[in-house]
Design goal:
single chain, about 425 residues, alpha+beta, seven-stranded mixed sheet, elongated
């Protein structure tokens, strides 16, 4: 038995309400259950309950056992002085207000339907993938779509936390924030954390000054990423080394002690050399990249902002000094869509939130226009019959799995709630 199950029972009034009595024998009539409180303090605010013919307005606190009131030190917290009813699974102790009057208590263990208990126990049993995998696709479209939209916004909220941390650290420099998040996502899972650390160490005023000259911007990105150390492999490599040495002296750059980016385990097109050069070329073609990103709301126009390729040297190289078969190293449509999902939409969302706007409709429209992502979570959901049609679906489902399914938070999930309510 978990306390959140009792919250579910109370919120949905899933208990016998006829001939309802406190543990001391006073008759109870529930006028209003109250509003759930997600912050500190009693579990439900502004309830209205008639006890022994007297109408009370106040708060409701819920526990597994009455004695939990003292285990949680509520007797020392003034937030709980206005509790009018203590709802528990099992009453094992009297609970008193500061004036020594007893707080009325409702015990649930004998008034909750057995089928609800059985369904809850069945839902929470160990599973192969998720608790409700047998019934996941039986949920009606309205419930599912409404919940997925909430999850999509919740995922954006989660991603915005990092963005607001960067915004504070950069003293509200949105261009620097975008640069840091782009660096992180250009590095993907393997080099993303290192690229992100590099981005934070770079004085963005320096990058602003050099970004129109790819040799300079590449030398800065490569040099700060420790990719220009050692003997020069060829003239291009030497040119970058000399340029980085000049920039280091001119701007007093502190070459960091970070490790070198990884090449091992990556496909050549994802090598850090290629990704950093591509990013340098994205910035070369856009004077105010952040402003462009914010003002552009059509998917194809956003994609065009990132239609760039690595410098021509990399047409015949993946690493310095080693020739390879000639191929233009353009950012692929798939990679650009990943950037849009993981960088552009969160940036747009965070900016709107920062200036006090609600979630712009175009963010959801863009997500619905992007192809669905492919990963193990999405594949397993498809195996139980939940097909994803867009990145909106996959982002929502990733949030669903990570924040609810994996944590067994079925009672805080609209799908879990619907299944329990429909089957009880």
């Amino acid at each position: 038995m978990r306390e959140e199950f009792l919250h579910f029972v109370w919120k949905n009034k899933k208990f016998k309400t006829k001939d309802l009595y406190t543990v001391s024998g006073d008759i109870i009539s529930i006028v209003s259950l109250g509003q759930i409180n997600y912050l500190a303090g009693p579990d439900f605010f502004n309830a209205k309950i008639e006890i022994a013919g007297q109408l009370w307005a106040g708060n409701v606190e819920i526990h597994l056992k009455s004695s939990d009131w003292y285990a949680h030190n509520h007797e020392n917290d003034t937030n709980y002085n206005n509790v009018i009813l203590h709802v528990v699974w099992e009453d094992d102790a009297n609970v008193f207000r500061p004036d020594n009057t007893t707080i009325p208590c409702l015990e649930l263990k004998d008034i909750v339907p057995l089928d609800l208990l059985d369904n809850h126990a069945s839902l929470m049993k160990s599973k192969k993938f998720i608790n409700c995998e047998k019934d996941f696709t039986s949920i009606d479209n309205f419930t599912r779509e409404h919940w997925l939209e909430r999850l999509f916004v919740e995922r954006l909220e989660q991603k915005s936390k990092l963005i607001f941390e960067l915004l504070k650290a950069s003293k509200n420099d949105w261009e620097k924030v975008l640069f840091c998040v782009l660096m992180k996502n250009f590095g993907l899972n393997i080099n993303g954390p290192l690229f992100f650390d590099v981005a934070k160490t770079i004085d963005f005023t320096v990058f602003r000054k050099v970004k129109y000259d790819v040799i300079k911007s590449e030398s800065l990105l490569f040099g700060m990423s420790n990719l220009l150390n050692g003997e020069a492999e060829d003239s291009y490599h030497k040119n970058l080394q000399e340029e980085f040495a000049f920039l280091s002296k001119k701007f007093r750059l502190q070459n960091n002690s970070l490790q070198k980016p990884n090449f091992y385990g990556l496909r050549p097109n994802n090598f850090p050399t290629i990704r950093l050069s591509q990013l340098a070329n994205v910035y070369k073609k856009s004077e105010n990249l952040f402003l462009k990103v914010i003002e552009t709301n059509e998917l194809n126009e956003i994609k065009s902002i990132f239609e760039a390729a690595a410098s021509y040297y990399w047409d015949t190289h993946f690493v310095f000094g080693k020739n390879s078969r000639k191929s233009r190293k353009k950012l692929t449509s798939t990679f650009i869509e990943l950037l849009i999902v993981n960088t552009i939409l969160p940036i747009k969302f965070s900016y709107a939130k920062n200036i006090g706007e609600s979630v712009p409709e175009h963010i959801i429209n863009i997500a619905r226009s992007l192809k669905p992502e492919t990963n193990s979570i999405i594949s397993k959901l498809e195996n139980i019959g939940s097909k994803s049609m867009s990145a909106f679906d996959t982002q929502s489902k990733i949030q669903l799995f990570n924040s609810y399914c994996k944590e067994n938070k079925c009672l805080k999930c609209s799908i879990g709630n619907k299944l329990l309510l429909d089957n009880s």
